[in-house]
UniProtKB/TrEMBL annotation:
InterPro entries: HTH_LacI, Lambda_DNA-bd_dom_sf, Peripla_BP_I, SBP_2_dom. GO terms for molecular function: DNA-binding transcription factor activity; transcription cis-regulatory region binding. SMART domains: HTH_LACI. This is LacI family DNA-binding transcriptional regulator. It comes from Shinella kummerowiae. Keywords: DNA-binding, Repressor, Transcription, Transcription regulation. Residues 10-67 form the HTH lacI-type domain.
Length: 339
């Protein structure tokens, strides 16, 4: 029989011997407390390099029990399937690491139960702060974290129990609607109402966008029929079904549309292609979202690009300052023509 012997795991005492220093100095470096111990940067770098070479892995759970902060920051996001949330995740990771924090991110699929499950898992890892992005029930997430003494910041959708950073949804929708109405008048020679498609009618962002949509119509002296506001959800299938059902009720669909995300736009464009409804006229479109590939659809689309860098700067500004005021910071989005 061949007997296999398990390789001995490297300990802080082994690293201390290799570095020619004490075990407590090694522990301070690995725990990130070396500056407080007045350990030189040169020695800290040497210990870190030796730890990597020896395959030493710090036991984070045990380490957390011995210090005040874990330096772990968590984020929950509802989806990964568009550039907006993908950009948030990418830039959040970069900003967290620049501050010496370790980011943990998970997708909750717009499911309130998964949001709470994810928050509980984050708390088990002793996160210092949790950023709830687009949470369907941010106050429940915040209350759970507050009970554990962990800070929460809301991003994208606001809550009433913690600071929030969101886009100026009303202002962005107002300007986007103005532009699409003007494009329709220029293209067709008359003022006509637009169709609003996508989003959940109960969430803050969609309600504010509908408000901006209505006010822009009122400014232009155009009446909006209630049937033209289709807050059917974000999924492409729901947008496609909403378009089909509306077309079954009336053959005279608007020549312009306000689409509430690129996810919904996928469903709208799928219906247009399959139905052939706009075969003789390309509708003027506005989308409260941004993706450069939309330019492939033509030059008749206006888009709203949410200012993710400024939004995340505001989030980390709140974290860095330690502010706990229940405020809502609104970041103006960028409205631009694609193509």
């Amino acid at each position: 029989m061949n007997r296999t012997t398990q390789t001995k795991r490297t300990t802080i005492y082994d690293l201390a011997e290799l570095a020619g220093t004490s075990a407590s100095a090694v522990s301070a470096v690995l725990n990130g407390n070396w500056k407080k111990r007045r350990i030189s940067a040169k020695l800290a770098e040497k210990i870190t390099k030796l730890a990597e070479e020896q395959g030493y892995a710090l036991n984070m759970q045990a380490s957390v029990l011995r210090r005040d902060r874990s330096k772990i920051i968590g984020m929950i996001v509802p989806k990964y399937d568009n550039r907006y949330f993908g950009s948030i995740v990418e830039q959040f990771e970069a900003l967290a690491r620049a501050r010496g924090l370790f980011p943990i991110i998970t997708c909750t699929m717009r499911d309130p139960a998964l949001e709470l499950e994810a928050a509980r898992a984050m708390l088990s890892y002793q996160v210092d702060c949790l950023v709830a992005t687009g949470a369907t029930d941010p106050d429940r997430v915040m209350d759970l974290c507050a009970a554990a003494g962990v800070r929460t910041i809301n991003l994208d959708l606001p809550g009433s129990h913690a600071p929030s950073v969101i886009s100026d949804n009303y202002g962005g929708a107002l300007e986007l609607t103005r532009r699409v109405l003007a494009n329709c008048e220029k293209e067709y020679g008359e003022k006509t109402p637009l169709l609003f498609v996508g989003g959940r009618g109960t969430d803050h962002n969609t309600m504010e966008r509908v408000r901006g949509f209505r006010d822009a119509h009122a400014e232009a002296g155009v009446t909006v029929d209630e049937a033209l506001v289709q807050t059917c959800g974000y999924a492409p299938e729901k947008a496609e079904n909403a378009m089909r059902q509306l077309a079954e009720r009336t053959s005279d669909l608007p020549r312009g549309m306000f689409v509430n995300s690129t996810i919904s736009l996928e469903g709208v464009m799928r219906w247009i292609r399959r139905s052939g409804h706009y075969a003789d006229r390309v509708p003027q479109l506005g989308c409260f979202d941004w993706d450069p590939f939309v330019a492939m659809l033509g030059d008749h689309i206006e888009m709203v690009r949410q200012d993710v860098p400024k939004m995340l700067d505001a989030v980390f500004g709140i974290i860095d300052s330690g502010a706990t005021d229940i405020t809502v910071v609104q970041i103006p989005p960028i409205v631009e023509k694609i193509g």
